[in-house]
Amino acid sequence: MIENQKIRPAKVIGPLGESLTLDTLPPPGTSRWVVRRKAEVVAAVNGGLLSVDEVCERYGLTVEEFAGWQRAIDRSGMPGLRVTRIQHYRSLYERQQRY
């Protein structure tokens, strides 16, 4: 009997079109999260390179924090991940939902 195995890709395409592997992702314990690093981690999960649980454990994130990154990218792309612009993009998204 053949068991279902999770088949993971060796690499995925990152947010800027580059190849991402486990070695090219931000190192575990990263404490300074710039937009590019957040987007790379989200792309790795979306591409199947890592699971959400693995990302949260590897980087010390909460599921809610990571989900917020995913929502920000879905709504506004990479600029939505900028900490200084979160409120602007949030209100812009809410206005778009009304109309």
TrEMBL record:
Gene3D superfamilies, per the entry: Winged helix-like DNA-binding domain superfamily/Winged helix DNA-binding domain
Q: Where does the UniProt annotation place the signal sequence?
A: none
Concerning InterPro entries, the annotation shows:
DUF1153, Trp_repressor/repl_initiator, WH-like_DNA-bd_sf
- Please give the superkingdom of this protein's source: Bacteria
Name of the protein in question: DUF1153 domain-containing protein
